[in-house]
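Hi U.,

Before I forget, here's the chain from the pilot set. I'm dumping it here mostly so it's searchable later in email.
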Amino acid sequence: MSRLRSYFLPFIMLAIASIFLTACEGMNVTGPDTFERPNDKWQKRDRERAKGNSVFGGEGLNFGGKSEKRQGQGGAGIGVNAYLWRATLDTISFMPLASADPFGGVVLTDWHSPNATPRERFKLNVYILGQALRADAIRVAAFRQVKTQTNEWQAIPMDAKAVIDIENSILTRARQLRSESLTQ
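Structure:
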């Protein structure tokens, strides 16, 4: 009897686990992976606009002509404005990259200490929020830390003007890249 029980025990445990997981199926779970990312609302809006009344989509049948949507992208293959993406990478190229997601439009840098001020370091998070080349399509979060007398890093607030200057530098570079591509 004991041998029979030990043989069926794994199957019984598997059946109980399956029932438990099935019972949890309808639960509404929120966690770190279920929040709305910066690019989600823009992608949702673009998908809704693409669902036009036409059989061929919102723009109808288009044989190679430039549509407004394609002109704003500056290229294909990534989920965000290609000019903003390239300009972001160009502008912050002096900082080490921790992560770069061209489909989500997120660029995260690692901490960088300028040679002139080794007891100070900076980190940037850049979010490209849409496919249009506009000022509201980019957001920068900047972080600054200073080393204390006890050799610990202490967070210091960033100057809001510095963050706006970084955003403006990226936008200026994106406009340069766009004008260069139109003249070629």
